[in-house]
Amino acid sequence: MSSHPAARVILLTGPSGSGKSSLAARTGLPILRLDDFYKEGDDPTLPMLPSGIGADWDSPQSWNADAALDAVAELCASGRTEVPDYDLASSSIIGRTAVELGGAPLFIAEGIFAADIAARCDGLGLLADALCLSRGAVTTARRRFARDLREGRKSVPFLLRRGWNLMRAERHIVARHSALGAHVCDRDEALERIIGARVESVPVRV
User: Fold this and answer.
1) Residue 187 CB neighbours (<10 A)
2) Quick check: is 27 in a domain?
3) pTM of the model
4) Residue-level pLDDT at 112
5) How is 105-162 classified by DSSP, letter by letter?
6) Which among 15, 59, 74, 92 has most CB atoms closer than 10 A?
């Protein structure tokens, strides 16, 4: 990997429902959706819930970190990559989608496991920043349930059970992201840091 990639990445993570997608869209930067790198439902390497009933989609083992990193690296190097089009309701890949930067020197890669590739992105010279959104467990739980219900991601009993478990675990989830190198912040601070990185990425004309 060149020490001077054509573009660099801002990794945006946080608990499910913390507002990553809406914040990323608000910035106007190109976006790579890292949740499209989930493993498919029939993958034998999927981790199971402690109860043994269904896959544990909140475990980083349910996510293909190597494929996500490859996509980030390709975008940084060439400004274009193809990514899976993942359907959460069926837990399957239903196509492929091209992501292009259009010459932008900076893009956002957002997803609940984004921090898992922060160290490797940094080691490759690709990382502009790594941020973890934290908005409070109750607010996040409310937003998550409304979104998942609206989008029909899973059955209502599954969403209620998962939502309760995630709300109780949120402090540990955020702490894990922090330990992996993501700066924990609220939406306003995250936006401020993204704007700062964007300014720094603009070439100086002489």
Assistant:
1) 17
2) yes
3) 0.83
4) 93
5) SEEEEE-TTGGGGHHHHHHTT-EEEEEEE---HHHHHHHHHHHHHHHT-S-HHHHHHH
6) 15
| 2 assigned to some structural domain | no
Give CA–CA dist 95/97, Å, rounded.
7
pLDDT in tens, 154-204: 777 777 777 677 777 788 989 999 999 999 999 999 999 999 998 887 654
Work out the end-to-end distance of the chain between its first and last CA atoms, rounded to an integer number of angstroms. Answer: 28
**pLDDT (tens digit per residue) in 29-86:** 999 999 999 999 999 999 998 877 788 888 999 999 999 999 999 999 999 999 999 9
- Tell me the β-bridge partners of 127: 9
Number of domains in the chain: 1
Is residue 206 assigned to a domain? no
What pLDDT is recorded for position 10? 98
8 Å CB contact between 27 and 147: no
Amino acid making up residue 169: A
Output the domain CATH number for residue 191. 3.40.50.300
Query: Edge to edge, what strands does the sheet with 31-33 contain?
Result: 31-33, 106-110, 8-13, 127-133, 183-185
Q: Is residue 3 part of a domain?
A: no
Closest by Cα among 129, 126, 148, 130 to 69: 126
Structural domain containing residue 145: 8-201
Which DSSP letter does residue 180 get? T
